[in-house]
Every structure is written in structure tokens, then in C-alpha cells.
Amino acid sequence: MTSTEAEEKAQEVLREHDTASRHRVDSELGPWRWLIFVLALGLTGFQLYTAFAGSRPTLIQGAIHVGGAMGLIFLLYPLHRSLSLREDTKPGLYWGSLVLDTILAFAAMGCSAYMVLNYDYLTGVQVQMFGYSDFDTTVALVGILLILEGTRRCVGLPIVIIATLALLYFWLGKYSPILPYHGTTWQNMVQQTWYSSRSIFGIPIQVSSTFVFLFLLFGVVLVRTNIGAYFNGLAFRLTGKFAGGPAKAAVVASAMQGTVTGSSVANAVASGSFTIPMMKKVGFKAKFAAATEATASTGGQIMPPIMGAAVFIMAEYTGIAYSTIILVAVIPAFMYFAGVMLAVHFEAKRNRIHGMRKDQLPSWKYLLTRIDQLLPLAVIIYMLMTGTTPAKAALWGIGTALVLSFLRESTRLSIRGIFEVLESGARVALPVIAACATAGMVAGIVTATGLGGRLADGILTAAGENFFLVMFFTMVACLVLGMGLPTTANYVVTATVAAPILISNFDVPILAAHLFVFYFGLLADITPPVCLAAYAASGIAGSNPLKSGVTAFRVAIAGFIVPYVFVSAPGLIFQTDDTVMHFLQVFITALLGMTAISAATAGYFFDHLHWWERIVLIAAGIAMVIPALWVSLIGIAVAVLMALLQRMRAKRRDGSTPLAERPAAAGAEA
Predict the structure, then answer these.
(1) How far is it, in rounded angstroms, from Cα 172 to Cα 194?
(2) What does the domain layout of the chain look like in residue ranges?
(3) pTM over 0.90
């Protein structure tokens, strides 16, 4: 498959599995193409201007941010996916839908403009004394409905359903058979949802309009200047020579690139179009190649320093500094990717898939001559860790990347290329802005109605106040709530609904609780039956989507273990005053436990595992993961015994089997 064919395949898969990619094709838009270009430049220009000059008042900043995004969404995303391609639609229907969407675009921008132009009145004494007028209420209602429709078009139905149910609960809660609420008038509902800085224009949009947009633009700059491709080369050089090299390289590359994408599905397709064919070529099954890419791409969202841009919202919700969250998140992220690497390693050993030859890998000399391409990310990390605001850190990262791009012809941007980057930055941000607006709506209603506390009480009662069962039910809630949501919206919804369950009833440290719900919300992308990232990767691999999802669940088993560990032993993420020895004990035994469980799920340790050996290893792994030292030691003893038995059996087999009769190895020599 040529690079062009791979790109076309990737776009086809994205349109199938990623709602954000089902937009109208630029070449078919006619004069509307220029309107979209101008609006996109205007949105990016506004974000850059406020990053330099300072943000406007909360409602004004949010209204311009959301209004500009909604205008672009209605122009780019049709009512139904079948209307996105002119060749698949009758001409009259295509252009008619575009005219209708233009009206909706200007209506959405008009609702936001009304708030900006009448800011003093809407926040002034007159409204406080006499309330909102009927026209104010009508504008609010239209604005809310357009945001829900825009979100459906570019994000998907799940979050719109959640938001609609939240609105109905806010309005008609007194009729709810469970968790009743006294309710309110529909007028009060729409007024509080639209004109409040605690709902649509709450923390998610406040962070999106100041920080998140700039980091998404940074990701676009890395891709368009080909600086991001350096990560792939570095990943292959570091891991390509080891057993299952291409798969391990895919894990490392996706970890580095995924942190700035904000979408596990988009990352799986973008990286997978390059890594999945290579994994299949050396001998991995298609379903495993898809599962590995999906798992790594999902893990990229938990990878510091940017964590899919959710880290900035997390800082606002928890009141904890960005630099602290970034440092704390390193340990669980390392454990997640260590678990994925172990799953890949045992799969490679089981199928005798060796590493790549030296001549297949980029040379260290080549990589060292281009090491400056790591500088933009290094600048961002340094500035975030030294207390610089995220907005300024992102600006410095963007500026550094653009300056470096001019040093080489392969990375240099033309004037037209720079304008395309600015336009792409706005377009990439659209699903995130829509999702943040709708998620903010949900968060505001949950807070206003006290729904979070009622849900916490319900789960606590169902679990019989058992801590493990509460964690389990919270995990299930996050897996359901996180289905099909972009990273930022995923975190907002799970943090609002599920995190209080752990914090209010069991005194779990706030950061541990928020990371717990963040992890499991994201893992919905690789958990059957809705595992969107696995489905997208299976489109590239040509594998069965559901089988790829089940395999991704197995590869990501560490992701399901790590949150339980750092909630049960918060010292692992430095949330208690534990000693260094206790930290090392929990960290090392958890890694050993994940090793045993990964081997058991792969069916290979030092040799192929029988069914009963897999059960024993899983039990030993669970024992090692439990923070209690004496339980971990029992697990270690059992695992060591299993390892010795495996080694002895492998030696007997290799000694009695002639070399010519042994299974052939795939790929190059290890």
C-alpha cells in the first residue's frame, strides 16, 4: 500500500468511525469555502489575540468562542452524513441543505453575538431586579438547541442524550421515579443554562477558550511541519530491535503523539495507518495490531504533559497546580504503558515475532541531527513546570515549532501553509468546543440540582458501603458515561457525576479520585461493546471490529488495574506522607502483578501456558497488586515458582526439539 493509498484508507476509516471527520469536502463547497476560511481564521485570530492581550470577561470570551465554533460546525457538518459528499446526494438536496445550514450558522452566531453586545444589560441591575425578558429567554432557548444539534453533528449522539436527560431532569425532576428533584420552570431552566457562567459557559468552555484551543493548534503545527513524524522515527529506533519491535514502537509513538490530539479515535487512525501495516507485516494478527494501536492511542490521552488537554480542566476542577498534576500523572501513565508493552512482548514471544533488522531502523546519526525537533515539546514542559500560564506555554511551543520548521526544507511552511495551519487549528478544535459546551451544560445542571450527591448515595447504598464495590460501580458508571466522548468532555462528565462518589464517602484524595474517573472514562474507547478506538483501528487492519475490541481490552488490562492501585494506595501518586520504601513496595509489586496478569492473558510466560497455569498466574498477579505487603509476597512466591517451572519446561523442550523442527520465527533476528 502506497502512502497515498494509506492516507485515503485512513480518511475512509475516520469518516466511518469518527463523527468529527464526517464533514463536507472543501472542494465541493463552492463560494462557501471562502466563508468557512474567513470564519476559521477569525476564530483562531481571536484565540491568539486573547492569549497575547488577555482574556475578555468570562461570558464574552465564551460566547465568541462557542459562537464562532457553532457557525463553522453548521457550515461544515450537514444534518446527516449522507449529505456530506455531493456525489452521493442530489444537487438540489446538497445545496438546499447547505443554504439551510448557513441560516443555522448565522442564527448560532447571532445568539452568541446577542450576549456579547448586551453584556452590560444581561449582567446588570435591571436583570437582577426584574428578570430576563421573553426575548432574552427565546435567544437562550434557540442557543441551547443549536448547541445540542451542533454537538450531535460533530461529536455524536451519546453526549447529546446525556445533556437532554439532564435538562429534562432540571425541568421535570419532580416527576422522576428515582432521585426526585423539585424541578423548575422551562424559562428558568434555559436562562440558567445559557446566561450563567456555571453551565454552558462554565469551567470547560473557560478552559477551552483560553488554553485547550492553543494546545490543539500546537498539535496541528507539529503535524503540518512534519515535526511530529520525528516521534515515529525515535520510537522505532528505541524499540524496533526488540521482540515485536513494530508493535512496541507503535506504543511509544502513540504515547508521544496522542497526548496533544485530544481524541483516541483520531490518534488511532493517524498513527495506525503507518504502524498497523508494519505490525501485520512482521507476523502480528490483524486483530492484535488493531488492538495495540487502539490501546496505545487511548493511553496517549493520559500521558503528561498535555493529557489530551484534559489536564487544564482538571487543574480548575481540583484546584491543584498543573505542574503538580503533570508530575503525579507520570507514575500511573508509566505503569499503563509498561502494561501495554508487556502484553505486546508476551504476544511476540508466543508467536516468535522478533525485532527489526538494523538496516530497517532510522540511524542514531540521522535522529541526533534532528534532535532539535523535540524542542517545542521540551519548551512547553519546562514552562508549565516553572509556573508559566498554559496559554503562554502553548504560544511559546507554537512559536518554537514554527521557527524550527524554517531550518529545513522538509518542515518549512509557505505563507499559504501558515494560513492553512491557522484554519486547521480552528477546524480541529470544533468537536472539542462543542463537547465542552454540552458537557458544561451537564456539569452545571448536576451541580444546580445536587444530582451528583444523590447518585453517590445511591451507589453507596447499592454497594453496601463496601469500598471495593463502590470503586467497581464507579468504574462501570465511567465506562458508560465515557462512551463516544472526546477526552475533555469525557473528563468533565465523569468528574462531575462520578468523582464525588469516592471523595465524599471515603475521603479518597481529590486528585486520586479525579484520575480514577478520568482513566475509566477514557477506557470506554477500548471496552466492548462500544470500543470506538478499536473499531477505528480495525478498519485500518481489516480485522473483525468486535474481536479487535475484546483483544484491546486484554492488551489494556493494566489500565484497569492501575486506578485501583492508586486509589487504594494514594502514596503511589504522592497524595499521602508515605515513606519512599512504601512507595517503592507498592510500585514494584504492582508492576510485577501486571507482568503476571499480562503473561496469563497472553497465554505465554517463559513458555506456552496451560489453562490452569493462566488461572494461577492471574491469582498471583492480583495478590501482588494488592498494596498489603504480606499478600504481595505470597503472590511473588507463586509467580516465581511458576516462572521456574516454565523455564525448566522451556529448556527441556528446546533441548529435545531439533532446530529444524522448531517453529519458524517471523521478522528479523532478535
Answers:
(1) 18
(2) 3-202, 578-658
(3) no
